[in-house]
Amino acid sequence: MDKIAITGIGVVTPSGIGKRQFWANIKSGRSFVKEITRFDASLYPSHIAGQIDDLDKYSTISERLLKKIDAFSHMALIASELALQDAGIDIKKEDPNLVGIFLGNAIGGWLYAETELRDMYMEGREGVSPYMASAWFPAAPQGQVSIYYGIKGFSKTVVSDRASSLMALGYARKVLAKNKLNMILAGGMEAPVTPYALLCCNTYGALSLDNAHPQEAYRPFDKKRNGFVIGEGAAIVVLEGLDRVKSRSAKSLAYIIGFGTTCDGVDRINPANDGIELGRAIRMALDEAKISPDKIDYISLDGLAVDIWDNSEIDAIRSVFGARLKDIPVSCPKSMFGNLLGASGVVDMVIAIHAMEHSLVPPTINLESPAVDGLLYVGKETREHKINKALIISRGRGGINSVLVVEKA
Amino acid sequence: MVAKEQIKDVLVKLLKVRPEELKDDVSLQDSIGVDSTEMVESVIALEKAFGTKFNPKEITKFSTINEIDAVIQSKLVK
Lengths: 409, 78
Description:
heterodimer; A: alpha/beta; Peroxisomal Thiolase, Chain A, domain 1; 2 domains; twelve-stranded mixed β-sheet; about 35% helix; B: mainly alpha; Non-ribosomal Peptide Synthetase Peptidyl Carrier Protein, Chain A; 5 helices; about 65% helix; globular
């Protein structure tokens, strides 16, 4: 399969909106996890998150449209605009039939849904906004971005829990490689910092309860790990075939060269404890990229900070990379801004692209004493390291494994 | 006689459009690109504002401000 170029990046995260601000905060190792202030969350077992407070400052979306959409669609619209600007694309000049959009989301738009359901029980059916039906569901952002830009090509929303956005990138790559479209907006968005969504995340039982120390709470692969922290945001990139990049004299930021996905199929929530299927997904991605494991210079880990997830992830990479693992830097930068669930994979890919460009491996803050030794963890401090090819791992509940290989442009 | 300004006021507040975008004799679709869901919302808001209920046949006549005004007038006269 051909290489696919990434030519534009749009990020909307607790660590920054826009790629410059985002990367500056990532490389400096700053934490943006804090106590939730959007609503009174103090009675929830876990009430810390990566929250975005200044979305409106970056938005050009009209009030008329805003009242029809949930925050996750708003984030997707901002991320799409930033990505198109970054790619230097005027979408009005594109053939709309040859533009696609592939997004990933795990839980839908609950802030909108919760408010309207409350109104339904308080005021009856006439109290519910007619936009409710089109605002809450996971494919709503795909629809809103398509309407906004007049996108009419083959498109898809992937719902695969936390692996959703990496899966969306994998699908988008396959479609582009078949030359069916000129360009695709691909990525994901998630807005779980709402009363009901936070409740569901708490029920999952895997969130950190270290509310007293928000910035130290998310500690993937650390001995003192105690679960993950949620975050909200979106990342969307522009994908194009190499011929088109050349014909419009555009600049490639990186290439997607391989993708693999497998399922564990053993439990409703947990992954298999042996990492065998994740290992197979990694090999699948490397095979598709036509490279051997020794060509990988950085591994971006999923890192849920839960024993079975972290340990099986290490087992999987060990099964593929063997003794060489002690020389390949690995890290989990989402420890700084929270796990963006369905949007987590694409955000990790965006970080890996910057890491390749700047030859800097992003940190895993709070990783002080690894629970499992023998890996080249990049902990608190950013580490200089030349990266030509990076592997990104994203996993979802029930054992969904997805792996992407990116190459420096 | 129902003031057309009152109808416009309801729509401006609801749809977040500028008053000057609404023209008496131009369809809401042509003037502000109203979509089907916005139309549903507008009908509900107008029902509340004028204390009346519109039947489906009446709603199909809701195209311009003049037409909405005519329907409301006929209801209020009854």
